[in-house]
Amino acid sequence: MHRFSDLFLTSSGRIGRIGFIFGGGVLLALWAGFDLLAPLALRDWIGWAVAAVLLYCGACVLSQRLHDRGRSGWWSGLILLAVALAWPRPQAPLDWVAAAVLIVVAVDLALLPGQKAFNRYGAPPKAQSGATPS
């Protein structure tokens, strides 16, 4: 199992489906909570900083899962762009295209297994869990 900080603060390595679902759920819950609970004045003042932190953490989680599927972490930029277009609900036609892309991405990353063998991004997540904690 990855350490909590490794999941959200580094884009190298690989994570499995459970780690991805956990990390993505935490980030979406934090963003929705900030959107719903923060006073309007607070959202105006620090909203960009909160968005930047959550986007960075999202890029890290996505990159690690993409690595587990054998893909470059750079794809996380396009995925996060689709999230930004579709959040909180799609309205324009391009927003609906982004929402459709997110459905395909969610199926790919959350339901399909990662590569079982060592790939250019490292060992499979289960092989890493046997390592001693540092």
Describe the structure.
By secondary structure, the protein is mainly alpha-helical. It has one domain. Helices cover 69% and strands 0% of the residues. It is built from six helices and no strands. The chain has helices spanning 4-9, 17-37, 40-68, 75-86, 93-111, 125-129. Helix 2 runs antiparallel to helix 3 (40-68), helix 3 runs antiparallel to helix 4 (75-86) and helix 4 (75-86) crosses helix 5 (93-111).
Features:
134 residues, mainly alpha, disordered C terminus
Topology diagram in text:
Blueprint: H1 4-9, H2 17-37, H3 40-68, H4 75-86, H5 93-111, H6 125-129
Low-confidence stretches: 130-134
Shape field: globular
N-to-C CA distance: 12 Å
Q: How much helix is in the residues?
A: 55-70%
Count of helical regions: 6
Quickly count the domains: 1
Strand content: under 5%
Give the biggest sheet. Answer: none
What is the CA-atom radius of gyration, in angstroms? 16 Å
N to C succession of SSEs = HHHHHH
Structural class: mainly alpha
Chain-averaged pLDDT: 90
- Strand runs, count: 0
